[in-house]
Amino acid sequence: MDAARAQQVAEEEFGLTVARLTELGGNEDLNFLAVTPEGARYVVKASATPRSALEAQSAALEFLAEAVATFDVPSPRLTIDGEAVVEIEGTHPFVRVISYVPGEMSVGSRRIVPGVGTALGSVSGEMVAKLASFSHPGLVEGGDWDLREAPRVVAGDPSLGSLLAASLERTARLALPVQVIHGDLTEDNVVLGEDQDFAGVIDFGDLAPSWAVAELAVTLTSLLAHDGPVMAEVLDAVAAFHARRPLALDEARAIWPLVVRRALVLEAGAARVLAADPENTYAIARRPFERLVLSRALALPYDEAELLMLDAVGLLPRREAPLVRMFAGLGDLPGLDLSVTSPLHDGGKWLTRPNPEDLPECVTRYGAPQLVPDAATGVVPRSIPLGMGAVLAPGKAVFAPAHALIRSAGDGAMVLALVDGGWVNLLGVDPEVEAGTTVPAAR
């Protein structure tokens, strides 16, 4: 459908008088902005989506207009005959007209705007909370953007298969509630009001049943597309979502595996769209952001991500049993300064990590920023340690800090699951016990 046909349909079928019509971008739908002589604005949307699904989207918009007071959504305009959808000829045969939600697009700054995580997470959580009671017989399940369908969507790209397998393993035994979700609640699909707060949500083309927590994963991926540090805003978004729509433990554990899954689906989806339409300017413009999202999602280890997500929503198990020292003299060891100004880095030595064999017995500080070799590359350096390092004399014994189960042991590493909650990861040790052994706390 070209602009002339869009205007004809808007006028003859939907009863609009169109003074000006402009083509808008779109990944799969054809979108046009129609302006009446009075200045009222509407979006004319042509889609290949089944008619029943489009009617469900229109019903959802009417439902949300009544249920939500914190942000606006488009209002469907009915045809002269009282229908929400009209059918025409062509590759995108189903046409709707919806009201234009006024405001500015929130995207624009390459670096993330402080506070956007909280604002977007709140809108995402509110949307999921309200849609939990919505249903419609026209809803279509199994779409390409439903994260439950990721194995099918990604199957055509062998390079993504192993990455997907790791995500699937993390969620295989989790119980995740299913409901209707927006499916694409990102910065691209919210608009700003006069006070620069999120005032409206648009583009309900991916409305469908899926995991409720999948909406949060979708929201977080849009935050990963910014330059510079973003994890603080990501965690704020998780907390804000949880405040509007509380997450169960399994849902919180699933957040990051689903973020990775969303990034993989975006990668596979972009390849599919560009294969069918190599000149799709919208898809071409999105490629650098989608690749950045994938690289960042994969850069955060699942175990670390899970702890961060659980902590953000207040579900991180708290240690109840007292811990004991893991080796003698821990409190007497000097601190190792690995900050930017440390003399250890003089002469370019910071370009390689210090060799423990060249250091005296010492400890590093938890959470203290370090100068790391990654700072010389184009990636955001992982320079704030979420653990504590200790350099010990060879042969010094290391003990469990509490009653624990040895989950793994070998190749210079051990993982201890503390019976009363918590984990201890040890690197650079020579295990004297096997995996599966229960060990007491040090005496």
Task: Describe, in plain words, how this protein is organized in 3D.
The protein has 443 residues and is α+β, with helices and mostly antiparallel strands. It has helices at 3-12, 51-67, 116-131, 150-154, 158-171, 212-224, 231-244, 249-276, 281-299, 302-312; strands at residues 20-24, 30-35, 41-47, 76-77, 86-87, 94-99, 104-105, 178-181, 190-192, 198-201, 208-211, 362-363, 390-391, 404-410, 413-418, 423-427, 438-439. A hairpin with a 4-residue loop joins strand 15 (413-418) and strand 16 (423-427). Helix 5 (158-171) packs antiparallel against helix 8 (249-276), helix 6 crosses helix 8 (249-276) and helix 8 (249-276) packs across helix 10 (302-312). The termini are far apart.
Q: Give the mean pLDDT.
A: 90
**Main beta-sheet strand count, sense and barrel state:** 6 strands, antiparallel
Radius of gyration: 26 Å
**Unreliable spans:** none
- Terminal CA distance reads 77 Å
- Structural class, by secondary structure, is alpha+beta
**Helical run tally:** 10
Could you outline the blueprint of secondary structure elements for this entry?
Blueprint: H1 3-12, E1 20-24, E2 30-35, E3 41-47, H2 51-67, E4 76-77, E5 86-87, E6 94-99, E7 104-105, H3 116-131, H4 150-154, H5 158-171, E8 178-181, E9 190-192, E10 198-201, E11 208-211, H6 212-224, H7 231-244, H8 249-276, H9 281-299, H10 302-312, E12 362-363, E13 390-391, E14 404-410, E15 413-418, E16 423-427, E17 438-439
Antiparallel strand pairs: 1-2, 2-3, 3-6, 4-6, 5-6, 7-9, 8-11, 9-10, 12-13, 14-15, 14-17, 15-16
Helix pairs in contact: 3-6, 3-7, 5-8, 6-7, 6-8, 6-9, 8-9, 8-10
